[in-house]
From TrEMBL:
It comes from Pelagibacterium nitratireducens. This is YeiH family protein. The lineage of its organism: Bacteria, Pseudomonadati, Pseudomonadota, Alphaproteobacteria, Hyphomicrobiales. Its main location: membrane. The keyword Transmembrane helix applies. It holds the Pfam family Cons_hypoth698.
Length: 341
C-alpha cells in the first residue's frame, strides 16, 4: 500500500513546490494584461509589461526561494507550450491567398533580415546571442520569436528582456509612422497591407497599422503577418544548430544536435492540424487568449530572473542595432514590393 501511494505523494509534493512560483507569475501576468488596457499603454504588449513588472518585483523584493521552482517551470515549459499553440494561428489556406509573388517577398524579407542581423551584429559589436534575438524578433514576429529563439540560443535573461524592450519600441514607433508613409508614398491598399505584414514586428502592431488605411489593407497585412509567422519553426531550428556548433567550438568538433526542438515540431504539427481541421472560432479565440497569458507568465518569470544591473550594462548599442534592423526590413521589403507586386 505504501509503495503504491508514493508516486501520488511525490506528485502532490511537486505540485505544492511549484504552486507559489506559478501563482506569482500568474498574478504578474494578470496585472500586465490589466495595465495594457489603459489608454496610454494600449500600444504596449502585455508580454513586455510582464517582463517589466517581473524585473521591478525582483528589484524591490528579490526572488523568494519558495517561488523559484514555479518560476523555472513558467520560464521554460509554459513558454514552450505557448509556442506550440501559436501554430494554430496559421493555416495553409492563408498561405494560398497570398499568391506566389507575395510569398516570395515575405520569404526573401525574413531571410535577408536574419542574414543582415548576423552580419551587422559583428560590425556593431553586439553579442551574438542578443543580435540573433533581435534579428529573430524583427524578421518574424516580435516577442514570440524572441522567446522561442531564446530557448535554443541558451540566451541570458537580461538578453531576452533587452530584446523584448528594443523590438517593442522599434515596432511601436513604426506602427505610428507606417500609415503616414503609406499615404506619402501613395501605396494602394494591397501593397501597403503587404508592406505592413512583411515588416512590422508584432501582430497587434500590424493590425493597428494595417487597418488605418482601410479594411483591404488591414486584411492583407494580417494574413501576410500570420504567414510570416511560419518562418518561426525553421529559424529556431537553424539558430539552435548554429548555437550548438558555436558552443562546441565549430565544425571541426562535431556535436550531436537537436535540429528540431520538440516545441518547434509541435508548432509545425499545430499548423497542419489547424489547416485540416475546421476548429470553431470560439475555440481558436480561447486558445489564442491562453497563448497570450502563458506567454505573459513565461515573460514574468524571465523578468523575475533578470538582474537589473546586468540589463543596464548592455548600453545603447543593442537599441541602436534594433533600430537599424527595423529600417532595413522596412526598406528592403518595400523595395521588393514596388519591384515585383
Amino acid at each position: 500500500m505504501t509503495t503504491k501511494a508514493q508516486p501520488h505523494l511525490q506528485n502532490a509534493g511537486v505540485l505544492r513546490e511549484m504552486t507559489p512560483g506559478l501563482f506569482l507569475c500568474a498574478v504578474i501576468a494578470a496585472t500586465a494584461f490589466s495595465i495594457s488596457h489603459l489608454r496610454f499603454l494600449s500600444a504596449v504588449s502585455p508580454a513586455l509589461l510582464a517582463v517589466v513588472l517581473g524585473i521591478a518585483f525582483r528589484a524591490l523584493l528579490g526572488e523568494p526561494a519558495i517561488a523559484q521552482p514555479g518560476v523555472r517551470i513558467s520560464m521554460r515549459q509554459l513558454l514552450r507550450i505557448a509556442v506550440v499553440l501559436l501554430g494554430l494561428r496559421v493555416t495553409f489556406a492563408q498561405i494560398q491567398t497570398m499568391g506566389l509573388s507575395a510569398l516570395m517577398v515575405l520569404a526573401a524579407t525574413v531571410v535577408a533580415t536574419l542574414a543582415f542581423s548576423f552580419w551587422m551584429s559583428k560590425l556593431c559589436r553586439v553579442e551574438w546571442r542578443l543580435g540573433m534575438l533581435l534579428g529573430s524578433g524583427t524578421a518574424i514576429c516580435g516577442a514570440s520569436a524572441i522567446v522561442a529563439a531564446s530557448s535554443t540560443l541558451t540566451a541570458r535573461h537580461e538578453d531576452i528582456a533587452y530584446g523584448l524592450a528594443a523590438v517593442t519600441i522599434a515596432g511601436s514607433l513604426s506602427m505610428v509612422l507606417y500609415p503616414i508613409l503609406g499615404i506619402l508614398l501613395e501605396l494602394d491598399p494591397h501593397r501597403y497591407g503587404l508592406w505592413v505584414g512583411a515588416s512590422l514586428h508584432e501582430v497587434a502592431q500590424v493590425v493597428v497599422a494595417g487597418y488605418q488605411l482601410g479594411p483591404e489593407a488591414g486584411e492583407t497585412a494580417t494574413v501576410a503577418k500570420l504567414v510570416r509567422v511560419l518562418a518561426l519553426a525553421p529559424t529556431v531550428a537553424v539558430l539552435g544548430y548554429l548555437a550548438q556548433r558555436r558552443l562546441r567550438g565549430g565544425p571541426d568538433q562535431p556535436a550531436r544536435v537537436q535540429l528540431i526542438p520538440w516545441f518547434v515540431a509541435g508548432f509545425a504539427v499545430m499548423v497542419v492540424l489547424g489547416s485540416v481541421i475546421a476548429f470553431p472560432d470560439w475555440l481558436l479565440s480561447g486558445i489564442q487568449s491562453l497563448v497570450s497569458f502563458l506567454m505573459a507568465m513565461a515573460l514574468a518569470a524571465i523578468g523575475i530572473e533578470t538582474d537589473l544591473g546586468r540589463l543596464a550594462g548592455k548600453g545603447m548599442a543593442p537599441l541602436l542595432f534594433s533600430a537599424l534592423l527595423t529600417i532595413f526590413i522596412a526598406v528592403f521589403s518595400l523595395a521588393l514590393i514596388l519591384l515585383f507586386i
